[in-house]
Write a structure and sequence with these properties.
48% of the residues lie in helices and 15% in strands. It has 473 residues and is of the alpha/beta class. Strands 6-3-2-12-13 form a 5-stranded parallel beta sheet. Strands 10-9-8-7-11 form a 5-stranded antiparallel beta sheet. The protein has a two-stranded antiparallel sheet with strand order 1-14. Helix 5 packs antiparallel against helix 6, helix 8 packs antiparallel against helix 9 and helix 14 runs antiparallel to helix 17. The two termini are 29 Å apart.
């Protein structure tokens, strides 16, 4: 039993998709899409698309990757019903991204309910910033899977979860292909079409559009195009008649870059602003789904859509939510808490223990503080009439006396904490599940943490909430 799934609405985008003209997807693009019902629908004739995307990560990365994909599926289904046109959800897996520090790990809840970090390996600080499709899983993948198996508790769904990930994150593949394979096995049957952007066919199809992006210089003085050079993936800076890589200082003429596009297109990639425009060029995109930060910078991409001569799709904020397992829900109910109580502020365990102080102790502490305030106020007034320079000395003495009462309360709370270790442990487990590492659950924990405990019911429960979100007002 999964418990509850709560929607945690993101700021509304205010954008409503507008039906475009369906078109057939070219064979070279279809060649890059992973097999499944989504690809079959893309190949069936003239279609429209709802796109979203994310860089790959270990064990599919944080939950919001799954939430983006489910949002695209639900929105595509809604638009298809409304427009009576085929609308296919497409996931652009950005395997040419180079942020290994973000992609090399996954967080799960261990048997004690504590957030546990599983790491593939670290990248040396001076190593080239290779795209993720050039990062082999290698023998490290077996170690990561072993660490995952040791971390997650035993359940009827543990073996199938490990088998799903083990089939994808193999020693003979790379981190990007592994992420694409895992995501396709999980959500491909639900109609998601997954395009690994690093696939040779995808690179060849995107290259002419990426070259068009060279004509635009962004506000930071750089081109929206990246090339893989000696320092790894690197932004190009327009420099007169040439383009120079930002970090390594390598120089390329326009003809050089056209030759790279023709002979080694895997070396070229779009930045975060150019990527949605390239997506809209390759697919008949009516809506682009993203998180708040992605939607915030999309207006800056308007010149790039114009440069490529493609219509910008509606920018739609993805679904956001929180999975509350029964054991966590019980803690919230027992202590009259809500997930918002874990958003910050005083530690909850301290707050709850302080509330459990005997009423007569609280009354005595309050009376003592009030008396200190009153007596020192009276003393200060009398002392000031004798020697005004001593007024600050009286205030310091008052503050010391108040600090003494605070120290007594602090030690009382600490004593009660030791006597209420069950309460402290319960709050710690709830915090680890709701706000692991102090961040929203969806930005830290991987879906494998929940699939291993509850099986496919997790996806069904989340999908039901996402469908309600997609239905709109």
């Amino acid at each position: 039993m999964i418990g509850r799934v709560l929607s945690t609405p993101l700021p509304p985008s205010g954008a409503r998709p507008v039906a475009g003209t369906p078109r057939a997807i070219p064979a070279d693009i279809l060649a890059a899409v992973l097999p499944g019902p989504g690809r079959d629908r893309l190949a069936s004739g003239e279609v429209l698309a709802v796109t979203t995307g994310q860089q790959p990560g270990l064990f599919t990365g944080p939950l919001y990757t799954i939430y983006k994909a489910l949002s695209a599926i639900a929105l595509a289904q809604r638009l298809e019903r409304e427009w009576r046109l085929p609308v296919v959800p497409v996931f652009w897996l950005a395997g040419d991204d180079h942020d290994f520090a973000e992609a090399n790990h996954a967080w799960v809840l261990n048997g004690a309910g504590e957030p546990t970090r599983i790491t593939l390996r670290e990248r040396a600080p001076d190593a080239p910033l290779l795209p993720l499709f050039r990062e082999p899983c290698g023998a490290d993948s077996a170690a990561a899977l072993h660490a995952l198996a040791a971390a997650i508790p035993d359940s009827e769904f543990k073996a199938v979860t490990l088998a799903w990930l083990g089939a994808a994150y193999r020693a003979d593949t790379n981190l990007a292909d592994a992420g694409a394979t895992a995501l396709n096995a999980l959500l491909g049957p639900r109609g998601l079409a997954i395009l690994p952007a690093h696939h040779p066919a995808a690179k060849r199809a995107a290259a002419p559009w990426i070259l068009k992006g060279l004509g635009e210089t962004l506000s930071d003085g750089l081109s929206p195009v990246l090339i893989e050079g000696t320092a790894g993936r690197d932004r190009l800076r327009p420099d007169g008649t040439t383009f120079t890589t930002r970090r390594s200082g390598e120089s390329f003429t326009r003809a050089d870059l056209e030759r790279v596009a023709a002979e080694a297109p895997q070396r070229l990639s779009p930045n975060v602003l150019l990527r949605p425009a390239v997506e809209a060029a390759l697919f008949p995109t009516v809506a682009y789904l993203g998180g708040p930060s992605e939607l915030a910078y999309l207006p800056d991409a308007a010149p790039l859509f114009a440069r490529l001569g493609v219509r910008a799709p509606a920018a739609v904020g993805r679904w956001s939510g929180l999975i509350l397992e029964p054991r966590i829900d019980k803690v919230l109910e027992r202590h009259a808490l809500s997930p918002a109580d874990f958003d910050g502020g005083p530690a909850l365990d301290t707050r709850l223990v302080r509330a459990a102080l005997p009423a007569e102790v609280v009354a005595a502490l309050t009376a003592t503080r009030d008396a200190v305030q009153d007596r020192y106020a009276e003393l200060g007034a009398r002392v000031a009439r004798v020697d005004p320079t001593l007024e600050r000395t009286v205030q310091s003495a008052r503050n010391a006396a108040l600090a003494g009462t605070q120290e007594i309360e602090k030690k009382l709370v600490a004593s009660l904490k030791r006597a209420n270790d069950t309460l402290v442990a319960q709050i710690a487990r709830a915090r680890g599940a709701i706000a692991p590492t102090g961040k929203p659950q969806e930005r830290v924990l991987t879906v494998a943490s929940f699939l291993a405990r509850h099986g496919p019911d997790v996806l069904d429960a989340v999908s039901a909430e996402v469908a309600r979100w997609a239905a709109g007002p």
